[in-house]
């Protein structure tokens, strides 16, 4: 009996609370609705990417960048008087979730999409946006095929693709250093091998040089003396290595200890201070490509400061790329005075915009012109950009 | 192909093989005595290297001579890793000695993961530079580009360790007790052999050689991290099986054969298939000689 009374009492409390909530919500919404009658409908920007799971650290900086840019614009006058509204959707970097996220934001009538983050998820979602004529811009998907295949005219990105790095390395070796015999090595991983394959095909397509050795090494192997001997035997003037710094430092050290002065050129997996720390004196003179240094760009400094002020910490990966993408999208809609697909695409391709990555616009395929990699060299224990 | 190149590949394979042998000895000895595959053995090698790094760091700060540092760090690594081996046996294997063999095997895998993660937490996941402790002078003209002092030290150390172990097992009381235990544990117990002590001693000896291998290769390669024991441990295990697990000369022969196989495949075919061929080789040997190169049905196990 007593228990039954208690149950009724709980139900009663719950009813009162939910009623109060309905009232509260209603009160909150009323003024907004009143405002909207006067204002133009907002421009909706979808922000899709990994916001949960193990890759969240790649996606959340993009959301924060979009929030900061949108807040800043809304505080002025939005885009030509229209407020910006963000539609944030998580895809956990999984292609199968990305398609449903894409369908969902398309259904909500977003005007443009900022995202996705991972190449696989981006590729899965792009077809849906293409069918709905929605411009999509990724801050971080580097897979070359996304732009170069020509399958996705609605796709743009503010990061250089993987092959751009290989192209730069090859051009540097053949053009700047005037070398002709190159050994191409990789660590058999997706990233390293992909890069090495591009480097190999670029050298082969170029009549200035030849690939004298193309091989994969086993990461974590006890030593690399056999491969090092092979490089020596091949009489390569330079090694182009695709992979990360632990293997690179082992190979370089073993080469130098064998008194080989073969030039070593690598990628942004090696352009890391740990490489210099581990390889020590043997790191000296090693070349590596890496993203251009934009830390002195005034917009970049402002963007980082804004992040620190709002979130109390340094921004994470691809933050500046995402910031640049948000600015480029807004600029395109503003300059074209339109949210129509064709107008936005034309504006992206023709209007230069100042971003944290420098002043950029986009080429026909959708890659940003002005964003790219630079070559660095280890000089006196630090990476120095080669102009 | 020219002769120099062949010799370089030969010596590179010998370096690898020597390191595998230092680790494989521990696998084969432990298996010989208690028929357990101690999968945490690769981690002992890694701990040896880490201990070496810490001692080297302290002594370098104190400004000692590199050769003195090498000797002291090696002793420290050997003693510290041996104490890990001893403790590991007491904690993870002794309580399971009467349990089915699978339990002890799983306990070994657990121990391996525990030690990896323990070092990861206690130290760092980054690669750490390991200073070159062996003075890097040049040899005379014909072999100057082929052989390096640190490689020579590795060959010599391996040879000395082999000789000492062989002496220990053939001519000492402890060796006799080990041989007896490996042939028939219960019978050995009945005639008064302290089997527990023999087993502990086996773990201590195996761990000591692995640690020595760890510190030498770390100094040769110049870097370590918490994960280096995994691949080296697997390869050494394969080498031990290749030679005939339980047999000491077999472990050494298996290691050298594996080292040379890898080196020559890399040198004359491609390093892409280095592991593929090394393991294919293992499969073939096990098909045609199931007990390994030097293994016998009725073998002297230690």
TrEMBL record, chain A:
<dbReference type="InterPro" id="IPR028082">
    <property type="entry name" value="Peripla_BP_I"/>
</dbReference>
<dbReference type="GO" id="GO:0006865">
    <property type="term" value="P:amino acid transport"/>
</dbReference>
<keyword id="KW-0732">Signal</keyword>
<feature type="domain" description="Leucine-binding protein">
    <location>
        <begin position="42"/>
        <end position="381"/>
    </location>
</feature>
<dbReference type="InterPro" id="IPR000709">
    <property type="entry name" value="Leu_Ile_Val-bd"/>
</dbReference>
<comment type="similarity">
    <text>Belongs to the leucine-binding protein family.</text>
</comment>
<protein>
    <submittedName>
        <fullName>Branched chain amino acid ABC transporter substrate-binding protein</fullName>
    </submittedName>
</protein>
<dbReference type="Pfam" id="PF13458">
    <property type="entry name" value="Peripla_BP_6"/>
</dbReference>
<feature type="signal peptide">
    <location>
        <begin position="1"/>
        <end position="19"/>
    </location>
</feature>
<dbReference type="InterPro" id="IPR028081">
    <property type="entry name" value="Leu-bd"/>
</dbReference>
<keyword id="KW-0813">Transport</keyword>
<keyword id="KW-0029">Amino-acid transport</keyword>
UniProtKB/TrEMBL annotation, chain B:
<dbReference type="GO" id="GO:0015192">
    <property type="term" value="F:L-phenylalanine transmembrane transporter activity"/>
</dbReference>
<dbReference type="InterPro" id="IPR001851">
    <property type="entry name" value="ABC_transp_permease"/>
</dbReference>
<feature type="transmembrane region" description="Helical">
    <location>
        <begin position="99"/>
        <end position="121"/>
    </location>
</feature>
<keyword id="KW-0472">Membrane</keyword>
<feature type="transmembrane region" description="Helical">
    <location>
        <begin position="44"/>
        <end position="62"/>
    </location>
</feature>
<feature type="transmembrane region" description="Helical">
    <location>
        <begin position="198"/>
        <end position="218"/>
    </location>
</feature>
<feature type="transmembrane region" description="Helical">
    <location>
        <begin position="276"/>
        <end position="295"/>
    </location>
</feature>
<keyword id="KW-1133">Transmembrane helix</keyword>
<dbReference type="GO" id="GO:0015188">
    <property type="term" value="F:L-isoleucine transmembrane transporter activity"/>
</dbReference>
<dbReference type="InterPro" id="IPR052157">
    <property type="entry name" value="BCAA_transport_permease"/>
</dbReference>
<dbReference type="GO" id="GO:0005304">
    <property type="term" value="F:L-valine transmembrane transporter activity"/>
</dbReference>
<keyword id="KW-1003">Cell membrane</keyword>
<dbReference type="GO" id="GO:0005886">
    <property type="term" value="C:plasma membrane"/>
</dbReference>
<protein>
    <submittedName>
        <fullName>Branched-chain amino acid ABC transporter permease</fullName>
    </submittedName>
</protein>
<dbReference type="Pfam" id="PF02653">
    <property type="entry name" value="BPD_transp_2"/>
</dbReference>
<keyword id="KW-0813">Transport</keyword>
<feature type="transmembrane region" description="Helical">
    <location>
        <begin position="152"/>
        <end position="169"/>
    </location>
</feature>
<dbReference type="GO" id="GO:0015808">
    <property type="term" value="P:L-alanine transport"/>
</dbReference>
<keyword id="KW-0812">Transmembrane</keyword>
<feature type="transmembrane region" description="Helical">
    <location>
        <begin position="19"/>
        <end position="37"/>
    </location>
</feature>
<dbReference type="GO" id="GO:0015190">
    <property type="term" value="F:L-leucine transmembrane transporter activity"/>
</dbReference>
<feature type="transmembrane region" description="Helical">
    <location>
        <begin position="68"/>
        <end position="87"/>
    </location>
</feature>
């Amino acid at each position: 009996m007593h228990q039954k009374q208690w149950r009724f009492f709980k139900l009663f409390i719950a009813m009162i609370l939910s009623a109060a909530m309905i009232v509260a919500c209603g009160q909150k919404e009323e003024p907004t609705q009143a405002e909207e009658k006067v204002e133009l409908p907002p421009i909706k920007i979808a922000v899709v990417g990994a916001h949960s799971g193990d890759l969240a650290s790649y996606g959340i900086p993009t959301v924060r960048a979009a929030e900061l840019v949108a807040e800043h614009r809304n505080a002025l006058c939005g885009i030509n008087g229209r407020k910006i509204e963000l539609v944030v959707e998580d895809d956990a970097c999984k292609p199968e979730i990305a398609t449903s996220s894409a369908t969902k934001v398309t259904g909500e009538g977003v005007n443009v999409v900022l995202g996705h983050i991972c190449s696989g998820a981006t590729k899965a979602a792009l077809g849906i946006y293409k069918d709905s004529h929605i411009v999509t811009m990724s801050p971080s998907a580097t897979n070359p095929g996304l732009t170069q295949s020509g399958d996705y005219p609605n796709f743009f990105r503010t990061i250089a693709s993987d092959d751009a790095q290989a192209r730069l390395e090859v051009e540097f070796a053949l053009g700047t250093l005037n070398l002709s015999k190159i050994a191409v090595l990789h660590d058999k991983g997706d990233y390293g091998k992909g890069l090495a394959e591009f480097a190999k095909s670029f050298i082969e397509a170029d009549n200035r040089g030849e690939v004298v050795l193309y091989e994969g090494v086993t990461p974590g192997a006890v030593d690399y003396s056999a491969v090092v001997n092979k490089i020596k035997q091949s009489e390569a003037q330079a090694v182009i290595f695709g992979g990360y710094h632990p293997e690179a430092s082992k190979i370089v050290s073993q080469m130098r200890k064998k008194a080989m002065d073969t030039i070593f050129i690598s990628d942004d997996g090696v352009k890391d201070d740990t490489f210099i720390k581990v390889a020590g004196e043997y790191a000296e003179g090693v070349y590596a490509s890496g993203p251009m240094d934009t830390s002195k760009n005034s917009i970049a400094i402002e963007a980082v400061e804004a992040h620190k002020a709002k979130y109390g910490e340094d921004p994470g990966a691809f933050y500046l790329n995402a910031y640049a993408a948000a600015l480029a999208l807004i600029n395109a809609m503003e300059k074209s005075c339109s949210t129509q697909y064709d107008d936005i695409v034309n504006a992206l391709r023709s209007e230069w915009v100042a971003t944290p990555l420098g002043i950029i616009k986009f080429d026909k395929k959708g890659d940003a012109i002005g964003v790219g990699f630079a070559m660095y060299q280890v000089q006196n224990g630090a990476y120095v950009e080669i102009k | 192909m020219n002769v120099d190149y062949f010799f370089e590949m030969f010596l590179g394979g010998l370096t690898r093989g020597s390191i595998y042998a230092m680790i494989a000895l521990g696998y084969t000895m432990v298996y010989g005595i208690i028929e357990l595959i101690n999968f945490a053995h690769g981690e002992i090698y890694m701990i040896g290297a880490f201990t070496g790094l810490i001692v080297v760091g302290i002594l370098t700060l104190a400004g000692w001579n590199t050769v003195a540092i090498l000797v002291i760090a090696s002793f420290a690594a050997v003693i510290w890793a041996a104490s890990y081996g001893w403790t590991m046996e007491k904690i993870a294997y002794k309580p399971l000695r009467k349990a089915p063999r699978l339990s002890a095997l799983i306990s070994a895998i657990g121990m391996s993961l525990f030690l990896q993660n323990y070092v990861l937490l206690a130290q760092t996941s980054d690669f750490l530079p390991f200073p070159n402790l062996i003075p890097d002078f040049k040899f005379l003209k014909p072999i100057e580009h082929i052989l390096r002092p640190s490689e020579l030290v590795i060959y010599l150390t391996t040879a000395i360790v082999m000789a000492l172990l062989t002496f220990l097992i053939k001519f000492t009381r402890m060796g006799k007790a080990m041989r007896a235990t490996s042939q028939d544990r219960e019978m050995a117990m009945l005639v008064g052999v302290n089997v527990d002590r023999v087993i502990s001693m086996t773990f201590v000896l195996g761990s000591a050689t692995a640690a020595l291998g760890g510190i030498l290769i770390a100094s040769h390669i110049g870097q370590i991290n918490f994960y280096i024991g995994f691949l080296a441990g697997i390869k050494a295990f394969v080498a031990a099986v290749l030679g005939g697990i339980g047999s000491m000369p077999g472990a050494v022969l298996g290691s050298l054969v594996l080292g040379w196989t890898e080196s020559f495949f890399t040198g004359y075919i491609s390093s892409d298939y280095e592991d593929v061929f090394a393991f294919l080789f293992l499969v073939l040997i096990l098909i045609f000689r199931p007990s390994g190169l030097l293994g016998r049905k009725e073998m002297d196990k230690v």
